[in-house]
Design goal:
Length: 423
């Protein structure tokens, strides 16, 4: 990338968007980008991309910047804030689809659909801070992944600014209109390395009439996972999660593992499932309903892994998750989505770069031994240079990824060095 000073870049951006929309980054943004610009239209983004391509200036789309702040080794020159592109473009409750600009947060999107008793049921940590662009680009998902899937399961249309400042679109505004290349899945989890998502179309779903949460403590991880396996095979749960003791303290648990099983439906369905859970796990723990259940669910959803000195997400076959987490060591804390085979793991203590590299290598080998994968969610700045944030795929897959990057971003300006294999 070409070297450019922040003052020179700001002066050039002023001519595109005006001086009032070019600013210094906040503390969090500063770990992702040196200068922030806030375009108010797709046309301005297109012009900015053309300028950056001409001069080889690295850029990255920015929401709240939590994801990139946790994984970039060094900031890009320019962060493109999507805060001013936050409109709902179209909402069709009868068709159960919504089209919105990528700067709107999941929280605001769902608030706009509340009167119609609908929602986008993807539940990232802090939905009030998570933009649709971040939801797609960083593949965020939470406890509801068990019953609702992730954003890639609900995304049916996307628009993004790519090479040459061109506006590209794929999919459509109705569920059946999804012919052509599956650009939605290509952009999902790409961390902004292929272009800047400006608009997304999602399928939405009804909000269940009731939600309850069973919270059951166990002394041993093995017993907790065994109970989760029984519940997962017996009931259509909304979420099924396990917290290690330190992360369970917010639920007034004392040095115990917690099983949290959420279930939704009408009052008759709720009553039936509650009875079956009591039969399956015995008369232990508590059954939360109404506001109490929602508050506890939100605590579970909003556990913050981005600020940990070292945090990773592991994905393995569900039957292997308990064994894999045990093999990762007694020093980790975790939130396990037990029915999905996904878990977030953290180390709360600061590590040297050498120890961190050995720790991540050990975790990664454990995941691979179970035919799974591991990627880092966050690492302290002092140790990032020693770490590989993503698994390295086989040579054929990596070559394909590099060809896609070269085709979509020949100038190499879109969030460079922040994906698999340094892409």
């Amino acid at each position: 990338m070409a070297a450019t000073t922040s003052s020179n870049l700001a002066n050039r951006l002023n001519s595109i968007v005006g001086a009032d929309r070019v600013r210094a980054p906040t503390d969090t943004e500063a770990r992702a980008a040196d200068t922030i610009v806030e375009p108010a239209s797709v046309e301005e983004i297109c012009e900015i991309v053309r300028m950056c391509e001409a001069d080889r200036i690295a850029l990255a789309p920015i929401g709240a910047a939590r994801s990139l702040a946790g994984i970039r080794r060094s900031p890009v020159a320019l962060g493109i804030s999507m805060a001013r592109l936050a409109r709902i473009v179209a909402y069709e409750p009868d068709d159960m689809t919504i089209v919105a600009e990528s700067g709107i947060t999941v929280g605001k999107l769902n608030a706009a659909m509340a009167d119609a008793r609908q929602r986008l049921p993807v539940d990232p940590c802090g939905p009030g801070m998570t933009t649709l662009g971040s939801l797609i680009g960083a593949a965020h998902a939470g406890p509801l992944r068990l019953s609702e899937g992730t954003s890639r399961d609900l995304l049916i249309g996307v628009r993004f600014v790519g090479h040459g400042g061109n506006l590209v679109h794929g999919g459509g505004r109705v569920v059946k209109n999804v012919a052509g290349y599956d650009l939605m899945k290509l952009m999902g989890g790409a961390f902004g390395t292929l272009g800047i998502v400006t608009e997304a179309t999602f399928k939405v779903r009804p909000i269940p009439s009731d939600y309850c949460l069973a919270v059951v403590p166990y002394a041993r991880a093995a017993d907790t996972f065994a109970a989760a396996c029984i519940l997962n095979g017996s009931l259509p749960l909304s979420n099924l999660d396990i917290l290690s003791p330190a992360l369970a303290t917010g639920f007034n648990s004392t040095s115990q593992f917690l099983l949290l099983a959420g279930f939704s439906g009408n009052p008759l369905e709720i009553g039936d499932q509650a009875e079956r859970i009591r039969d399956l796990v015995g008369a232990r723990g508590e059954l939360l309903s109404a506001d109490g259940a929602l508050r506890s669910y939100e605590l579970l959803r909003d556990i913050d892994f981005h600020s940990a000195p070292l945090a990773a997400q592991i994905a393995v076959p569900p039957a292997s998750l308990a064994r894999v987490l045990e093999a990762c060591g007694n020093d980790i804390e975790f939130r396990a989505h037990a029915g999905s085979g996904v878990a977030q793991i953290i180390l709360a203590d600061e590590l040297s770069a050498e120890v961190a590299a050995k720790t991540v290598a050990r975790w990664r080998e454990v995941a691979r031994s179970a035919r799974g994968s591991l990627r880092l969610i966050a690492a302290a700045p002092a140790i990032r240079d020693s770490l590989e944030f993503f698994d390295t795929p086989n040579a054929g897959a990596l070559a394909l990824m590099r060809r896609l990057k070269a085709a979509f971003d020949p100038a190499g300006i879109f969030n460079p060095g922040c994906f698999v294999g340094g892409i």
